[in-house]
Design brief:
Length: 696
């Protein structure tokens, strides 16, 4: 940047403020002397360490792609200034950036809906309704599938924005009162939140699963909907870290169930502290009334067509899970596990509808196949505990699946209303990149998802750019930045000659006596050794410092994964004997949740379908669906870590913009022709040069 003049304003790095604005006093070769704003201090910095400020007429601009100087400080500055004025939505090229206001804003009522539905979108302020309206118009006029991809960190506002999208679509299509499908789509949410959300440190109402909601349209009307879900955090059923909670539903039904029902489910006089799976969690959330939420849940259940028997069966299964958690052992040191006196084994057996002795055998002394024969194995208390915990997790996941399946049946495409073919608007609400101090298999799954979604974005942007150039016959060497991400994606999911992380993990899961260590060794041998580095040349893999894991160079940054428990997490084993007991349960609801085990060959197949493989398949299906759509991208931003309104932490925001592709989008846009300006805007801005040229 050598075209700096004195009196120009630039951004310089600043310890306390992340960036500070400064005025140029003197330029000297590669260095520049600047005076910080509101200060008399002068400092000398390298020109390369400065970024240009935009002229004041760009202050609080609606679309950051229009900034003359498109750089990190300018983007953060713009978002911050807007945020101070409650302008939480800002465009950045193809992205809509949404900064969580942490306070209710009066920008979502019916007046706003009409304004965006009837108004000129270009003239209106950036808004989640604007994006939604555009998707709706595309579905109507172009009859092409649309998608809105909403991502961001936990607490950034994904779910709130997703709700606004659905509210908007329901609202603008609700004139034809012939069906209450819109109402049903809205009522699915409280159910999903009860069973899929929990209080975490970052968010009192955190979704512990990802979802893709598809809303089908025909002739501009909603004719059906469907919900797909991903990566439910079912380990939360067993334990929660300090200051967090289990899924909301446990607290809601414990405080809301009527007395007669409680007695029947063995919950009489019992509360959160009486159950091992809840004991260490927060009993309440400030300002949240679990009993009232329970009432709302029952209303939603009814609207969604759940009958009393089904609702009761769901609560019964939840109680069963809690009782399973309370089965203790005599001594945790023994070689052979024994149930503790008073362990609620009979209650569990009675509620689960299977014989207590068969359950006892399956947990304490299971028969396993050794060659052609079955032998009895002895189980330590820790192993027995793990067997029970796995059943509890599995039960919870099956209830969740049952509920979503049932909701989907209720929202199924209404053939009678669908005149001709329908198109959908799909809304994806899924966690963004996770880079924690300790990262495990769950983070790999979510980061792999984000790597694929970012690739999808980059590729989409490339196609659009390419079309622009082709339209204007501009000779340009196209670069598909989507390709940049392929080496990392291969490193994770390749199944060819050089197996990726997931395939190697699957492989280790069937090798006898394999351990997390042996998995790591294989991984390093395949990807980390110099002789193989030549083969792959990806540079996306390295071993971590303490040799407890490995590092993947994601587009969002380097992530250090610890391999502890990966084999177990990927296998997610569950006692086949107990599965079969549940499948033969005298309780028809439970029996239906555990359909008969498939034939031997099917079984083998099933065993191979690890958590990683299943996720990969689901993601492939999602990507297929997304590629049939015109995508729209919403990036939610957490403004601070204190859940406070009006507090804008610049460094925190900057880190998110780097991770979530907004800055990447800017980089790609700049690698093309930097600016596209309409002639009417171009003339007043640059005509001065013509004038100057004439004078000179
Ligand atoms: N547009 C908004 N208006 C008002 N409050 C908001 C808005 N967006 C987010 N919030 C507040 O922030 C909280 C967290 O938002 P939300 O649950 O949508 O985050 P999330 O990104 O879905 O997080 P997670 O990944 O943990 O589910 C909300 O409960 C709400 O209090």
């Amino acid at each position: 940047m050598s075209d700096l003049n004195s009196k120009d304003y630039v951004w310089i790095a600043d310890k306390a403020e992340t960036f500070a604005r400064a005025c140029i006093v003197l330029t000297d070769g590669d260095m520049v002397r600047v005076r910080k704003m509101d200060s008399t201090d002068e400092v000398t910095v390298a020109i390369d360490a400065t970024e240009k400020c935009n002229p004041p007429n760009f202050d609080k601009c609606d679309d950051m792609a229009e900034l003359t100087h498109l750089n990190e400080p300018s983007v953060v500055h713009n978002l911050r200034q807007r945020y101070a004025d409650d302008l939480i939505y800002t465009y950045s090229g193809l992205f809509l950036v949404a900064v969580n206001p942490y306070a209710p804003l009066a920008i979502y009522d019916e007046n706003y809906v009409s304004m965006y539905h009837d108004g000129d979108l270009k003239a209106l302020k950036p808004h989640i309704f604007a994006i939604t309206e555009r998707t709706y118009q595309n579905v109507r006029a172009k009859r092409k599938n649309q998608s809105i991809l909403v991502t961001g960190e936990s607490g950034a506002g994904k779910t709130e924005n997703t709700k606004k999208i659905i509210q908007y679509l329901s609202s603008i299509t609700h004139q034809a009162k012939s069906s209450n499908i819109e109402e049903k789509i809205l009522q699915a949410n409280p159910i999903l939140e009860s069973f899929g959300n929990a209080q975490t440190i970052r968010n009192h109402n955190s979704s512990r699963f990802g979802k893709f909601i598809r809303i089908e349209f025909a002739s501009g009307q909603i004719v059906g909907a469907n919900i797909d879900w991903y990566l439910l955090e079912k380990s939360r059923v067993l334990k929660q870290t300090a200051k967090e909670r289990n899924f909301h539903i446990f607290y809601q039904f414990l405080s809301g169930l009527p007395k007669n029902k409680r007695a029947e489910l063995g919950l009489d006089g019992k509360g959160v502290r009486d159950f091992a799976y809840l004991r260490d969690s927060n009993p309440t959330i400030p300002h949240i009334d679990d009993r009232a939420e329970f009432g709302q849940l029952l209303t939603s259940f009814r609207i969604m067509g759940f009958n009393d028997a089904e609702i009761h069966a769901i609560f019964r299964t939840l109680a069963l899970i809690l009782h399973l958690g309370n089965i203790d052992f005599m001594s945790m040191k023994a070689d052979q596990a024994q149930f503790a006196r008073g362990a609620p084994v009979d209650r569990v057996a009675e509620m689960a509808g299977f014989p207590a002795d068969a359950f006892t055998t399956a947990v304490l002394r299971p028969k396993v196949k050794a060659g052609k024969e079955f032998v009895t194995q002895s189980r330590t208390p820790f192993q027995a505990r793990a067997t029970i915990d796995a059943v509890a997790k599995m039960l919870y996941e099956r209830i969740f699946r049952f509920i979503v399946d049932k909701i989907n049946e209720e929202l199924v495409l209404d053939e009678t209303r669908a005149t001709g073919e329908s198109n959908f608007i799909g809304v994806l609400d899924i966690a963004g990149f996770e880079i924690f101090t300790k990262n495990s298999f769950e983070q790999l799954c979510i980061n792999y998802t984000n790597e694929r979604l970012q690739q999808f974005f980059n590729h989409h942007m490339f196609i659009l750019e390419q079309n622009e150039y082709l339209k204007e016959n501009i000779n340009w060497k196209f670069i598909d930045f989507g390709n940049d991400l392929q080496p990392t994606i291969d490193l994770i999911d390749a199944r060819g000659k050089q197996h990726g992380v997931m395939a190697l993990l699957d492989e280790e899961c069937i090798v006898p006596r394999a351990t997390d260590r042996s998995f790591l060794e294989k991984l390093v041998k395949n990807w980390g050794e110099p002789k193989n580095a030549g083969k792959t040349l990806t540079g996306k893999f390295s071993q971590n410092k303490f040799k407890t894991g490995f590092i993947i160079h994601h587009y969002a940054g380097k992530v250090d994964y610890d391999v502890d428990q990966w084999l177990e997490k990927n296998k997610d084993p569950v006692s086949e004997a107990i599965m079969s007991l549940l499948g033969n349960s005298t309780d028809p609801f439970l029996a239906a949740l555990f359909p008969a085990t498939p034939s031997l060959s099917g079984k083998r197949n099933n065993m191979l379908r690890t958590v990683g493989t299943k996720h990969k398949e689901q993601l492939a299906d999602l990507m297929d669906q997304l590629s049939s759509t015109t995508p729209h991208f919403v990036r939610c931003i957490l403004p601070n870590n204190m859940k406070l309104p009006k507090k804008f932490d610049k460094q925190l925001v900057l880190d998110q913009l780097r991770c979530n592709g907004v800055l990447e989008g800017i980089r790609i846009a700049r690698s093309g022709y930097p600016n596209r300006i309409f002639f009417k805007d171009f003339l007043p801005r640059y005509s001065i040069f013509r004038l100057r040229a004439r004078i000179e």
